[in-house]
Design a protein that fits this description.
about 90 residues; mainly alpha; rod-shaped
């Protein structure tokens, strides 16, 4: 299938198809769905726990590693409190 044939079937231009192939332009969701349908594919969205992009991906991975490590460590024994909890100290008037 040529770029012109694909463009005609998907309702877009040949120059847009060319730009998509060269990575100079990204199709919108509707265009991507039309292109996929012409080529015999069905697209869907699958939700995931987190989106990892750029600098945020590194922070997410660090936080995930710290949380995994904290789950693996044994709990520390807590010392008894040297003073009573606030509820027993506060008096209602």
């Amino acid at each position: 299938m040529t770029q012109s044939q694909l463009a005609l079937a998907a309702g877009t231009s040949q120059s847009a198809i060319s730009a998509y192939e060269r990575g100079e332009k990204d199709p919108g969701w509707a265009t991507l769905c039309r292109l996929s349908a012409v080529l015999g594919y069905d697209l869907g969205i699958v939700p995931t726990y987190a989106t990892r992009r750029g600098a945020a991906a590194g922070r997410y991975d660090v936080i995930a590693d710290v949380l995994a490590l904290s789950d693996a460590l044994p709990p520390r024994p807590r010392k008894p409190m040297a003073f009573p909890p606030f509820k027993s100290v506060i008096r209602r008037q």
